[in-house]
Amino acid sequence: MTQKIPELQCPDGNKLISPINSPLDEDSQKVKLKKELGLLEGVAIILGIIFGSGIFITPKGIIQEVDSVGFSLVVWVLCGFLSMIGALCYAELGTAIPKSGGDYAYIYECFGPLPAFLYLWAANLIFVPTTNAIMGLTFAKYVIQPFFIKCDVPTPSVTLVAIVTICFLTFLNGYNVKATTKMQNIFMFSKVGALVLVIVVGIVWMCLGHTENFHNAFEGTTENPGKIAKAFYSGIFSYSGWNYLNFMTEELKNPFVNLPRAIYISIPLVTLIYVLANMAYLSVLTPDAMMASDAIAVTFGDYVMGKYAVVIPILVAISAFGGLSVHIMASSRMLFVGARNGHFPECLAHINVKTFTPLPSLIFLNLLSLVMLVSSDIHQLITYCTIVESFFVMLSVAGLLYLRWKQPELPRPIKVNIIVPIVFVIICLFLIVMPCLEAPFEVGMGVLITLSGIPAYYIGVKWTDKPSAFAQIMKKFTTISQKLLLAAPEE
Hints:
Blueprint: E1 8-9, E2 15-17, H1 39-50, H2 54-66, H3 69-96, H4 103-111, H5 113-144, H6 155-175, H7 177-207, H8 225-239, H9 255-284, H10 287-292, H11 296-304, H12 311-340, E3 351-352, H13 359-372, H14 378-406, H15 419-433, H16 435-438, H17 440-451, H18 453-462, H19 468-485
Antiparallel strand pairs: 1-2, 2-3
Helix pairs in contact: 1-7, 1-9, 1-12, 2-3, 2-8, 3-8, 3-9, 3-15, 4-5, 4-14, 5-6, 5-12, 5-13, 5-14, 5-17, 6-12, 6-13, 7-9, 7-12, 8-14, 12-13, 14-15, 14-17
Transmembrane segments: 37-57, 69-93, 105-127, 147-172, 192-211, 261-281, 308-330, 381-402, 414-433, 439-459
Keywords: Cell membrane, Membrane, Transmembrane, Transmembrane helix, Transport
GO cellular component, one term: plasma membrane
């Protein structure tokens, strides 16, 4: 997996060059990603990913697991708390290890190359493309839903729209980072606007006296710890994204200041909006109505907004579209850093000199995301990807504790109280162990796919004296990627 490949150059000068031995950076002789992200862009990236599709689909997953209105709201508050303490830990990690790649970089620094490779392997085979698929499917369902009011939305239509959306946003992210981030800034306000509209309508509805859904709010609450853990996974998925700015630390201006500020602004705002939005949903829809709906925000609008309900799916579609765009951009940097370290084929560490984007990584993740669209069951996909991701997030925070012990003198511009990472690790352990009883298949598949990375690591990375046949296969893949990447767009 460390096959060297030559410089790629078009006759028109549009190049794709490895970040090794390039003349474009006089100090390090490497092509580098530009520092184009300020505080506003950092907040937009975090909010853009978090305010993606989760809040419009996971309320159904939570309510059907906990069986009560009151405890579902408790789950939303606790998931916000968990995200906040996790984000505090990542603020320390991101400023102590100021490298792009997020969890991959932290696990690599703390525990070495094999665990880091397993994270990269699991991320690119499970939770990154799965999350892209979930966001693409959510966007597609909300776009198509208004055309099928009295019947079920055709699954092939949803899948086709999701495919087109993922491919288009991959192209857009490869074309220009600056243009993409400007678009995401605009979409951030559209997403907040969609949720504010839901909240305002819900508050007005409750002020008119419609509070009957909150009577005996905790009646029927499940006592099954496995079901509670699965409910938390749905909530955690809605909050997922609070650590994605850490994937782009090298592109963030003044990261020691802007990284923690972006986190401190984003997470409390998200928690407040999520809790209020769920109160709005629950004030209008009964738990049974929520569980029967595939597009909760659309059902909510149909109940209370009449002919103006068409605004809801438009705003939700914009939210999912923008969230998917941010997720594609941020996750490609993680793959780029892994390839740069020799853990994936080196062609994935190339940067287009015209656009300064990691085009090969974007294309590779695009293909894997399309594969994940074979399943259209969003809630199964959520459980499947969140269990594996939660393990590696826990491992990253455990790395913070390890560094405190092994490298106490390491400069830490931000240093959280030691209780914070300890509490986070304990909660993650509960959330990882309990679902084994309720979702053994999903857990087992996640473990198997992750462990399959061990032979891949020793064959692809550690085994340096590979036979010539393997080198020829890699050369063919390199030739194919050259032909594809030489068609890269001009600015």
